Protein 1
Amino acid sequence: MDYAVVVALQILSGVATLVIVSLGLAVVFGMMRVINLAHGEFLMLGGYTAILSYGHGANLWLAILVLPPIVVGLIGAVVERLLIRRLYGRMIDTMLATWGLSLAFIGGVTMLFGNSNTGVSAPLGSFEVGRFHVASYDIFLMLAACALSAIVWAVLKLTPAGLIARGTMQNAEMAAALGVAPDRVYAITFSAGAALSGLAGGLIAPVAGVLPTMGTAYIAKAFITVITGGAAMLTGTLVASALLGTVSTVFTFVWTPVFGEVALLVFAIVLLRLLPRGITGRFLRRSL
Amino acid sequence: MGPSRSSAEIVAVLLIALFAAWALPQALELFALINATVWVSMAVLAVSLGLIWGFGGILCFGQTAFFGLGGYTYAVASINFGDTTWAVPIALLVPTLVAAALGYLMFYGRISDVYMGVITLTTTLILFKFANSTAGDEWNIGASPLGGFNGIPGTPPLNWPFDPGDQLPPEQIFVVAVLCLALCYAAAKLILRTRFGRVCVAIKENELRAELLGYDVRLHKLALFAIGGFMAGMAGILFANCVFVSPTMFSLSYAGQVIIWVLVGGIGTLVGPVIGCMLIQALTTYAGTLSSVDPNLLLGVVFMLAVVAVPKGLLPTATNLIARLTRRGDA
């Protein structure tokens, strides 16, 4: 019984991690159709912001939750202005340029902070389920995943800014005719996506090792999740995270973490063979 | 471009290759020659991607998956057999089959090229992680350990067919590599002249139109992708012969470099990727000697500049420029 609870919690925390690392990409790629291969490096920069500010004496929660989204959001705004803006509509060029960006970020951070593994230990301690210890921070990550999804949903669905963003993504010319400046909407949306990625980096910093190359561990999973999710970016990402996170965690339990990742990929590729337009291309089509 | 001009190009490239195979082993020190072999094996990889991306429109971000599979299969098979005669065909077959299987899932699922890029990239990253985790005896395949992070250092070099004692020295490996590069180039050129190759180019130009004209788009892409996997596997074997196989063959930085070579050299050409490969390799080697700048940073910046400034690549930009200058000269 206790074991079942622990396994269930592990699965939930796997799903929550997937949601957290994918949300920023869901905004940038799912909404804007910008293939940002530097997404993993945005996570990495968020992680470094958290670690460095904590190391310089900032409050832990400030370092995890507040500073990373601000810093990475600003970096995102600069990147959009200098690089992404030149390439809207040229999907493959965007992909290549952001890959270059990703390499440059990895190289730059390696130069500045070295190639060593740093981290903060997870706060909040642990609690006991029968004979097992479960880290409370895992539970916090689950709550954070729920809260983040709710915030993204609320902003997009309930605020005028969200309405304008969704409208501009659907039809930029029409939005421009109605007096919206699409350039600004794109810039703000991209920065918001980057900020979400930065926050994700801060959130996972205590459980993942913070390394210049840590982004490569997440980029593939995040893309696969968003692609498998399909057109309705929020619902799709949540459903896909639930499916893929479960598959991956179960295989991790039965075998090793590597096979968990292999299973995730294989499952996603087969799923895309069956549902080429993603899960929400077939089901739940009218959701957000 | 008529067939005669393309034949002339093939002959010219073959002559250059023969000259390089004859002259460089005499001119270069052993260390430089081994390095040159590495570059040539990389150039084979560049040609494989130049073929499927430039002429088939297949954006494969994980060409290194087949490169690494070729290398690993070669190493494992030749260590087990004690002879490379059969290891080579097996090491060519495995990446081809994997490419065919992956291609089946992607092309018959009609996944768009953008998703394809992400899926192929993921494949090579997964292989990278897998190869990294294979340290320890439970991962031995027959007599050969997979070696995890360290790879398989004792990869045996090629020997004469059916004569395991007669291993090729580095000079001859270089000759073999140059000949392989020339053959891959010529084969790609010839494939593009067949009906199959022309249909592939038609699909790249306008997939819907080709399909409406009655061509099986999925099958053509699948076949071309498998050919690309074959060539990448060959590159892997050559690489294994002059370095040794290790998980880096699957790594993101290698996967990224292949794309950069093709992009910088010029998409839609076959010589361009080779030129791009040599230039970027030279740049990386130079960057490696700088202690103050991280090579990844330099590569990334070159990559971004290439996309923004010369989106067509060096070779097409240069040929356009020459064509414009000569036309001005005529007038």
Protein 2
Amino acid sequence: MNLVATLAPLQAVVFALVALGAPLVVLTRDPLRQALVNSIYGVSLVCLFVVLEAPDPALSMLVVSGIAYPLVILAAVARVRGERRRAKETEDD
Amino acid sequence: MTRRVRMTLLAPALLGLGALFAWAIAGLPRFGDYRGPYGYVLNQIVVPLRHSTNVVMATTFDVRGVDTMGEEFILYAAVLGVTLLLRDEAGAGRVERKTRRLRSDAVRLVGVVMIGGGLLVALWLIAFGYITPGGGFPGGVVFAGAILVLYLIGSHRDYRPFRNEHVLDPVEGIGTGGYVVTGLAALASGTPFLTNLFGYGQTGTLASAGSIGILNAASGIAVTVAMLLLFAEFLETYVAPLEPEDVGS
């Protein structure tokens, strides 16, 4: 049995995971949770790239979804919540 | 607009989009079908010509090296843009408060192991970029990410050297400029820009692929420092201003 035939069921499973993960990211309403779910979804994409025999995009996806993107979202969430808190404090004064 | 009107507008739009989408999917080539000749050509010529066993890297840093230089400058321009947008001159003189240090030893231990492991993986990714999958771009982000863990488990003070722009800016210059200088060196020796000047060495060893190795290292430095500059700006703008509030709580 050649490699392509061996990988086919694995590819099918990971494709299904990716297809399930994408709506999960969209349906998560809380931005903080969404950042986490998105990272997990990113890992499923990494698995997809690996089983499609594309290690270089897999590495790039790993660092983007694991490090760079969550940081940007988390920073934005922190900023928005901080401003809300500040606005509330000013009202209280 | 009421919900009803919105739905009436949405339904035909969804139907139309769905039909177009189905049409597009039906017209896709079969899964795994590859038509372009370039991939086959590169697979055939790269290893014998450049002695690099990672065809992706040899393609990005040699066959289309000029494009990659452009990409590096896209990152450079992006970081420059973020810095210019987020720079808060009013807050520049703000006194940094002492942050609480993490109490949990377990978290700190895991963090230290992550820093060590991350740096090691990053160095491996960059160094062996032209032999196994990896290279300066992912390696650089992992390197910067490992350093960022220091911020998470340590304090402002531990992380300060890695957000000092007087240190970071020249290093970023060396990384980004190193790529151009390598290209110009080829030009100076009478060959076209970015010609692979150096000996190709022995396939599968660190001493292979000629100037691909230098370009790879240069972009590794450039990406690492670009990410650190990005983190520094984000931390300064988003995180630091929030912390004085935490003191009161």
